[in-house]
Design brief:
The protein has about 240 residues and is of the alpha/beta class. It has 8 helices and 8 strands. It has helices at about 15-25, 50-55, 95-105, 110, 135-150, 170-185, 195-210, 230-235; strands spanning about 1-10, 30-35, 60, 90-95, 120-125, 155-160, 190-195, 220.
């Protein structure tokens, strides 16, 4: 039976980065399909890393005409292949905010056939972004995404970051936000996401300040693959 992971959240929350890491990691264990459902922001999405994903053995489903200098805001018919019988992992990288989540809503009948224990809908939260920087805005965004996607979020991810300037303090700020959001909604914190170095710093901070493990969850280390720093752009391009 396939395992499904759906990543939702606001613009700049880090969904694409996390999706790439999850896909590359999953492909080492078995079949993996990554569905790029970002029909909102064509300039920052997982399809940009098609060569990396192909090398890793990930089956990438991109929006029609993606990366061909033509943008038609629609999803590929191949998305339905994600719901065919079989084994492996399927990851959905959903476009930002509730507007991007609308594209996901049409697959509600398909998701209904997935056993609840095999469907994980993660709300990725980055408090350094204005649309989810405090509890009211993060809660409102969550509610709108659930309504548009027609799916219930099963876990919250603390992905507090400021790109290359990220420190443990950003994850600490994310901790406070996801804790409050979890308490208010009853949705558990699935995990805390960051580079290995940042997670180690945060681990030290968490122990020193007695942070509650229930609101830290799984430590999910990632490698930066989207290459948005100026130096990497000059040397490697997009």
């Amino acid at each position: 039976m396939k395992e499904y992971w759906v990543l939702v959240g606001s613009f700049g929350g880090g969904k694409s980065e996390m999706s790439l890491n999850m896909a590359v990691r999953a492909a080492k264990k078995g079949p993996c399909m990554l569905v790029d459902m970002d029909v909102i922001n064509p300039y920052f999405r997982t399809s940009e890393r098609h060569e990396l994903l192909e090398k890793a053995g990930v089956d990438l489903v991109s929006p029609p005409y993606a990366l061909q200098k033509i943008e038609i805001m629609s999803v590929s018919a191949r998305v339905y292949a994600a719901f065919t019988p079989g084994e492996g992992t399927v990851i959905f990288d959903v476009g930002g905010d509730h507007v991007g989540a609308i594209a996901l809503g049409q697959y509600k009948p398909n998701f209904q056939n997935v056993p609840p224990e095999n469907l994980h809908v993660l709300y990725v939260v980055n408090p350094m972004r204005p649309l989810a920087s405090d509890l009211p805005s993060a809660r409102t965004m969550l509610e709108k995404i659930q309504g548009a996607s027609r799916l219930r979020v099963t876990g919250i991810v603390n992905n507090g970051n400021l790109a290359g300037m990220t420190t443990a303090e950003h994850l600490a700020k994310g901790y406070e936000l996801v804790r409050a959001l979890s308490d208010e909604t009853g949705i558990p914190v699935w995990g805390t996401c960051g580079t290995e170095e940042t997670l180690k710093e945060f681990e030290t901070y968490a122990k020193a300040n007695g942070l509650d493990e229930a609101y830290i969850g799984k430590r999910y280390p990632i490698e930066v693959m989207m290459h948005r720093s100026w130096d990497k752009y000059l040397s490697e391009g997009l």
